[in-house]
Predict the 3D structure of the following.
Amino acid sequence: MSNISDLIEQYLKKLLEESLEDYIEIQRSKVASYFNCVPSQINYVLTTRFSTGHGYIVESRRGGGGFIRIVKLPLDHRVNLVLGICNMIGESISRADAIGLINRLQEEELITQREKRLMCSVIESKLQYLEIPVHNQLRALLLKAMVTAVLKE
Amino acid sequence: MSNISDLIEQYLKKLLEESLEDYIEIQRSKVASYFNCVPSQINYVLTTRFSTGHGYIVESRRGGGGFIRIVKLPLDHRVNLVLGICNMIGESISRADAIGLINRLQEEELITQREKRLMCSVIESKLQYLEIPVHNQLRALLLKAMVTAVLKE
DNA sequence: ACCTTGACTTTGATTGACTTTAACTTATTA
DNA sequence: TAATAAGTTAAAGTCAATCAAAGTCAAGGT
């Protein structure tokens, strides 16, 4: 215990709990200097403890007035389902499997018809520049991003 | 997060919303002194947040009695809508412009909050690990596919 | 294995010096 | 006197420098 990363993790989770919203906005440099560490340490904590796999979404903006926003996904069974789905998708997925999964989501009424069309259009768009293996990875990446995004609420 | 540019953006959008017309006319120097910033800051906001990519047209006149007119393009003529938007997107689009366009679609209530989040997640997903040389082109491709999927009907 | 650090990169915002344009005012000329 | 040219002032435009973040990555530490 009490390595800096754990302390920062606890600190951020406390902030999230105290927040009236389901998210917090921090400044990387502020948090870093509060903990007397280099700024990139914050990135380390974010990627190791606040990934989508852990039920968080991290957004940010650089430049003057930049910030990092940490969104906590509500942990109802729907979300668990989707986290499970993300796990299922893994690093790579075929076109057919992706479409199948999207159809499932729609049958379960987790997404609307329009959202299904939208997601399928992404999966099926002709990415003529890419090699096949990269294509499967790209699909997985995009699909997970999309599934996560529709839940974030 | 209270950088001046964001505040100016909000201010102008509010003016546009309150306006009875589909445009507003401002004086650069007035707005600048209202926000206590240099006049060219207004230009920065206009080019980064009110580009045609974002669905606005900016016209102006210099000299005595000069002004800047910001026209909000109605994105609502269903028939040519998809074609027009795809045209706007072109072969290549920056991350910022893509997000701006998606925001416009939502403001115009052509897409829902969830659909917006979904689309943004695609645009913002971290593709950097896959070695794709042409991010801007890929973005354009995906965005056009999504717009078409969700708006054609 | 996980954590910590720091050099380097990328993105975004702010500023100010300089340029261009348009309207107004005054002087000059047919 | 009316038309035109020249000068003055009041805008807006451009661009490059600088500042202010956050991101990446790899090397080293525990």
